[in-house]
Design a protein that fits this description.
This protein has four helices and five strands; from the N terminus they run αβββααββα. It is of the alpha+beta class and 148 residues long. It has a three-stranded antiparallel beta sheet with strand order 2-1-3, with no helix packed on it. β4 and β5 form a beta hairpin.
Length: 148
């Protein structure tokens, strides 16, 4: 019958023997100047023989992202078209905004919607993918016409 002492001694012996399991690691630089590390020796390349316990581990942490200058955002074709409509006819832009808000409210509050099929005129149930696509389109419309 094995006791708890046996398990403790077996665990300690495994931990103390860990350096004996160290493996040879080869380091070489390829023709592009890239440094490689491998347990298998590369053919016909000058290598440096290292041992795994000798390799210094890199520090783990957070590297802050580089701050780049914000470039002037280029407006999309939809944004340019929305601006043109708003400048030409503010009443039409307001109507588009109100329609998009209403459609979004309907799309977000109802999950079983139907729409008329353009080809044969029959009513077809809207899939969830179609509904999510329409939600995104209405949000874009609201962004373009309502936030002015």
């Amino acid at each position: 019958m094995m006791t708890g002492k046996f398990y403790v001694s077996a665990l300690l012996s495994l931990l103390l023997c860990a350096p004996a399991f160290a493996t040879t690691i080869y380091k070489w630089v390829d023709e592009n100047g890239v440094t490689h590390y491998s347990q298998e020796k590369p053919p016909e390349i000058a290598t440096e023989k290292l041992y795994s316990e000798d390799i210094e581990q890199q520090k783990v942490g957070f590297t802050a992202p580089k701050v780049t200058e914000r470039q002037e955002e280029q407006k999309s074709e939809a944004a340019l078209a929305a601006e043109a409509i708003t400048e030409k006819d503010k009443a039409q832009a307001k109507a588009i905004c109100e329609n998009a808000q209403h459609q979004l409210k309907v799309l977000e509050t109802h999950t079983r919607l139907t729409r008329k099929n353009e080809k044969d005129g029959e009513m077809v149930r809207m899939t969830e993918e179609d509904r999510q696509s329409e939600i995104a389109a209405q949000k874009q419309c609201i962004k373009l016409f309502c936030n002015k």
